[in-house]
Design goal:
By secondary structure, the chain is α/β, with parallel strands linked by helices. It has one domain: 2-enoyl-CoA Hydratase, Chain A, domain 1. 34% of the residues lie in helices and 22% in strands. The protein is built from six helices and ten strands; from the N terminus they run H-E-E-H-E-H-E-E-H-E-E-H-H-E-E-E. Strand 1 and strand 2 form a beta hairpin. Helix 2 packs parallel to helix 3. The longest helix is centred in the first third of the chain and has 17 residues. The N and C termini lie far apart (60 Å).
Length: 195
């Protein structure tokens, strides 16, 4: 019985790790230099993997996000690491950062999104998830109106926010070039990389 239970737990752990986000460091032709990538669904434990990866890079390395979201506590933990390190977050061309992913994007010292990409917002799963998101968004300094906008769509629906929705969030992004490394000229909290 104990052996079967151990095998079952091991199989569950393998299944969970197989679905984890890909968190890696690599070169980027778009951003120039080294980049931290978070791709895929965020699952429990990804915050530990992100911390280990983040400890290997300097503070001027961007965190590129392409994620449909996932586990809220892990996204918040990653966001806190991003914020503590003062890292820049980036959603690239035709990119998607939805659900819990924008919690990480909003944590960037500079949060950059490239034109023709979008953030997808909705409330958390259940009251507890929504309360966690709301608390973290307040921690980030967002206003009550911004928080209402972000959490205003119930799951399973998602509100896709494009550059045209920035005004609804009260954001006036600095425009920067998305050419090789030029996005580094972002000096505002929020930047829109064009073309």
């Amino acid at each position: 019985m104990r052996k079967r239970m151990s095998l079952t737990l091991h199989m569950l752990m393998l299944a969970a790790s197989a679905q984890a986000a890909e968190i890696s460091v690599g070169p980027s032709l778009v951003h120039g230099g080294t980049t931290v990538f978070i791709r895929g669904e965020i699952v429990p434990g990804d915050e530990r993997q992100f911390r280990a990866v983040a400890e290997t890079v300097s503070d001027d390395v961007p965190v590129v996000l392409r994620s449909p979201g996932g586990y809220i506590p892990s996204a918040i933990a990653i966001g806190r690491i991003v914020r503590a390190r003062g890292l820049t977050t980036f959603v690239g061309r035709a990119g998607l950062c939805a659900s819990a992913c924008p919690l990480i994007w909003l944590s960037g010292r500079h949060a950059v999104i490239q034109r023709n990409s979008y953030l997808g917002f909705h409330a958390g799963s259940g009251e507890r998830g929504t309360a966690m998101m709301e608390s973290y968004l307040r921690e980030l300094g967002l206003t009550a109106d911004q928080i209402r906008y972000i959490l205003g769509t119930p799951q399973p629906l998602t509100r896709p926010a494009t550059e045209y929705d920035a005004s609804a969030l009260g954001i006036r992004p600095q425009l920067v070039s998305s050419l090789l490394g030029a996005w580094k000229s972002c000096r505002a909290k929020y930047c829109l990389a064009i073309p």
